[in-house]
């Protein structure tokens, strides 16, 4: 079953990432006549955000755009992955290109998964003869697991090819999901035997490639780019910790939300500072509150025991009609239909 948009993106378990993948999706589909607004629907990303190269969005915002894309074309993950050149990763991409060897570059990439924007845990598994570059522990939308695996593994293969300046010969590839109808495309992408329903997503190559020197290696540039990656990673993780505290404060007060001013006092900052930080994350107080209420509403509706009027009260609505209108705005369907 293809994923469909399910309302505003949740920031409950989000991490920060860049607009690289979103911009890529827009470029692919706009070339086919699709409007940007259709692909951005429900993500909270606006046209103005696309003009800022250093803008930060959450992985949930990114995944909403991905869901919109997959609803239009099921195999789009393979093509998108092919278009993610190593230069698409900004400072990290240049740090990888200037590394001494392929092994050095891959080790650096795995050190900064936040800068890769991955929703997997990445590992290099070395058995002495071959090396498996593995992506496992998927931690996001189940409906997008195959898409994300395809996007991740193809883009990792492209990174290796770009770093080496040639196609890295693969010994095999495997995927966690079941074999899709378009499985013949995998053979063309990876040029090796491919299996499905595996314990992880991975591809293998001969171990000696780890020691292959990179044609654009430059120790001075590499040192500078690596330091910038370290600082950027601190920014990502620091903002994530801050966002986690904001979320937790709000989720504990859904029945009587504190308002922007009240939340700012609880965060020991001014309302202007709070607003600015949320804007930098592509969000706002009201959007974040709506996202948290939507997540809680879905949980309570799925449980099936609490009447809808009580759910409305739990989420701070004095009238059930107001909750119904809000839920339709978030999800596109009425609460009774969602539950049914």
Automatic annotation (TrEMBL):
Pfam families (UniProt xref): Arabinose_bd (PF12625), HTH_18 (PF12833)
Domain HTH araC/xylS-type residue range list: 244-340
Keyword vocabulary terms for this entry: DNA-binding, Transcription, Transcription regulation
Annotated TM spans: none
InterPro entries named in the record: AraC-type_N, Homeodomain-like_sf, HTH_AraC
Keyword Transcription among record annotations: yes
The keyword Transcription appears for this protein: yes
Chain coiled-coil ranges: none
SMART domains, sorted: HTH_ARAC (SM00342)
PANTHER family, per the entry: HTH-TYPE TRANSCRIPTIONAL REGULATOR GADX, HTH-TYPE TRANSCRIPTIONAL REGULATOR VQSM
Protein name: AraC family transcriptional regulator
Organism of provenance: Pseudomonas parafulva
């Amino acid at each position: 079953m293809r994923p469909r948009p399910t309302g505003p993106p949740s920031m409950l378990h989000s991490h920060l990432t860049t607009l690289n993948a979103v911009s890529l999706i827009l470029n692919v589909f706009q070339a086919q006549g699709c409007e940007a607004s259709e692909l951005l629907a429900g993500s909270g990303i606006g046209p103005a955000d696309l003009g800022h190269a250093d803008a930060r969005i959450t992985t949930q915002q990114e995944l909403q755009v991905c869901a919109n894309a997959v609803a239009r074309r099921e195999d789009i993950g393979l093509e998108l992955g092919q278009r993610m050149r190593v230069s698409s990763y900004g400072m990290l991409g240049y740090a990888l290109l200037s590394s001494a060897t392929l092994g050095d570059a891959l080790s650096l990439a795995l050190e900064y998964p936040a800068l890769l924007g991955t929703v997997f845990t990445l590992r290099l598994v070395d058995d002495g003869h071959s090396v498996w570059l593995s992506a496992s522990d998927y931690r996001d939308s189940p409906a997008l697991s195959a898409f994300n695996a395809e996007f991740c593994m193809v883009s990792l293969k492209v990174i290796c090819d770009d770093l080496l300046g040639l196609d890295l010969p693969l010994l095999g590839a495997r995927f966690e999901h079941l074999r899709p109808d378009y499985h013949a495309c995998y053979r063309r992408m990876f040029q090796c035997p491919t299996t499905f329903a595996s314990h992880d997503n991975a591809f293998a190559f001969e171990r000696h490639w780890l020691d292959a020197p990179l044609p654009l290696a430059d120790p001075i540039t590499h040192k500078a780019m690596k330091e910038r990656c370290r600082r950027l990673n601190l920014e990502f993780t620091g903002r994530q910790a801050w966002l986690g505290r904001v979320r937790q404060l709000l989720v504990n007060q859904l029945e009587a939300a504190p308002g922007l001013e009240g939340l700012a006092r609880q965060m020991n900052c001014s309302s202007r500072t709070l607003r600015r930080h949320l804007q930098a994350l592509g969000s706002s107080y009201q959007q974040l509150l709506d996202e948290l209420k939507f997540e809680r509403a879905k949980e309570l509706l799925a449980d099936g025991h609490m009447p809808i009027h009580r759910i409305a009260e739990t989420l701070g609505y004095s009238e059930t009609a107001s909750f119904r209108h809000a839920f339709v705005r978030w999800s596109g369907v009425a609460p009774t239909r969602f539950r049914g």
